[in-house]
Amino acid sequence: MHQLIGEQALEVPPVNGHDRHLTILLCSAGRRVGLLRAFRRAAAALHVDLRIIACDVQPEWSAACRLADLAVRVPYADDPDYIPAIEAICREYHVGLVVPTIDPELLPLAEARDRLAAAGTTVAVSGLPVIEICRDKLRTAIFLAEHGIPVPRTIDAALADPSDWDGPAIVKPRHGSAGRAITRIDDLRALTNIGTEPMVVQELLVGEEWTVNVYFDQAGALRSVVPHRRVQVRAGEVEKGVTGWQRQLMDIAEQMAACLPGPYGALCYQAIITADGSAKVFEINARFGGGYPLADYAGASFAQWLIEERLALPSTAANKWIAGVAMLRFDAAIFVRL
């Protein structure tokens, strides 16, 4: 059973037609304060009465949960009770839109899209085939290569042959995220004791690292592509970045749009542009990326477009944004009485 963190339950009317009321559920809210605030700005621009419910396994220790209208405790995404807990929240509070934020919850939420739709809730997640591609780095590389999209050489670590590989490489979990357990090796003979977790070996790319935020509407049409250069990264998340009209990366997004089976909402992909000017894609995230607030401030309000779609308002989704917008993140805190 879900547990409320806060003073009392919200009285939220259901969404109906062009009613300007909407309740969203921000999943695994954690530190995603920037994303929460992006939805608040979007709602204000649309004159929508927005209520944000945030959930987490430890909402009392989540900054975003503390800033939401209501915080709810839920199990981990791999718990069999996770989807029943999400569904119970959606039904009780007439949630119109569920917004996932981390990789582990994408698969269960994609599998439960129809179930939650029966409760009147839209889940801002791509179809199951997209999730299954993106959650596996080996499968991502194979899929993209099959569709002519440039990727670094990538192999299953369990099948790696040192005699068939020259130069340094990166070893990473097939299903990892946020830079977890990534190791550089200069020789595949050093590839020992990798444990039982499935890993991949990937060509080490050297050059400028970019994230490309992309938005797909409910029909699966690509509506916006916003590249930003990752100037500085901390714990796998961009700390300093700047938007740029990088034509090669925008063309790759168009190629992805032509082959991904059922994308919806916010996705992002990561690529490196090497010294010779060529780009290679090494990861796709089928969710809001940690650097999304930069795209939002540059003028690409994915949050607003999701609200417009959910409320059947005229869509303003367009590939109109400003290049040269920089994000300089800093540490901040909120303070509460426990």
List the main descriptive attributes of the protein structure presented here:
27% strand; 338 residues; Rossmann fold; 3 domains; alpha+beta; 25% helix; six-stranded mixed β-sheet; six-stranded antiparallel β-sheet
CATH architecture field of the largest domain:
3-Layer(aba) Sandwich
The separation of the N and C termini measures 22 Å
Task: Please summarize the sheet with the most strands.
Answer: 6 strands, mixed
Instruction: Please give the share of residues in helix.
Output: 25-40%
What does the overall shape look like?
globular
Structural class by sheet pairing and helices: alpha+beta
Put simply, the count of helices is: 10
Instruction: Write the H/E string, N to C.
Output: EEHEHEHEHHEHHEEEEEEEHEEHHE
What does the model show?
It is a single chain. This protein has 10 helices and 16 strands. It has a 6-stranded mixed sheet with strand order 1-4-3-2-5-6. The protein has a 6-stranded antiparallel sheet with strand order 15-14-11-12-13-16. The chain has a 4-stranded antiparallel sheet with strand order 7-10-8-9, with helices on one face. The protein has 338 residues and is of the alpha+beta class. Helix 1 (33-46) links the parallel strand 2 (21-26) and strand 3.
